[in-house]
């Protein structure tokens, strides 16, 4: 078993583990965001009730509650933005995994000697190459989307 094949297999496993760990971290953060959303929603409901029910309360108190409500809305918007970024990262991870699988398949066809390739092998190789280009284009679109989002936030 040549050294370059072992090295390639090891690097493939390492990249798979990195993607897996990143996916787990993203999933944990999405769950945390969901819990925080619920908490913010409950706090917002309480503040809205206070603002509606307490018509005769002091103006300072109403101003304070309104400011708290606006702060909650701002926090929720920030969380929604983060959630959007994480969903893009999830899509990017899926495409990255798909690209690695296609690379592996393509490499197996390309390592075969031309004299031993059947017309079906050549057709399959071309199809995999086509799929690989589509995945790369999709990843490019996601990167452009992230960049546009980042620039619009600035």
TrEMBL record:
Coiled coil stretches, renumbered: 23-50
Q: Which InterPro entries match?
A: bMERB_dom, F-actin_Monoox_Mical
Its Gene Ontology molecular function terms? Answer: monooxygenase activity
In terms of superkingdom, the source organism counts as Eukaryota
Q: Give the UniProt keywords, A-Z.
A: Coiled coil, Membrane, Monooxygenase, Oxidoreductase
Q: Which PROSITE patterns match?
A: BMERB (PS51848)
Compartmental location? Membrane
Major place of residence: membrane
What parts of the sequence cross the membrane? none
Which positions fall inside the BMERB domain?
A: 13-154
Q: Which PANTHER family match?
A: [F-ACTIN]-MONOOXYGENASE MICAL1, CALPONIN HOMOLOGY DOMAIN-CONTAINING PROTEIN DDB_G0272472-RELATED
Could you identify this protein by its name? Answer: MICA1 monooxygenase
Query: What species is this protein from?
Result: Hypocryptadius cinnamomeus
Q: Which gene encodes it?
A: Mical1
């Amino acid at each position: 078993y040549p050294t370059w094949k072992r090295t390639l297999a090891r690097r493939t496993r390492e990249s798979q583990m990195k993607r897996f760990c990143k996916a787990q971290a993203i999933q944990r953060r999405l769950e945390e965001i969901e819990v925080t959303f619920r908490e913010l929603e409950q706090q917002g409901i309480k503040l809205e009730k206070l603002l509606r029910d307490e018509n005769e309360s002091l103006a300072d108190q109403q101003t304070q509650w309104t400011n708290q409500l606006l702060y909650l809305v701002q926090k929720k918007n920030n969380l929604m933005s983060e959630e959007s970024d994480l969903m893009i990262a999830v899509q990017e991870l899926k495409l990255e995994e798909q690209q690695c699988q296609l690379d592996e398949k393509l490499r197996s066809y390309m390592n075969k000697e031309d004299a031993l390739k059947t017309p079906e092998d050549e057709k399959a190789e071309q199809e995999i190459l086509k799929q690989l280009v589509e995945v790369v284009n999709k990843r490019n679109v996601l990167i452009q989307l992230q960049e546009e989002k980042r620039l619009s936030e600035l």
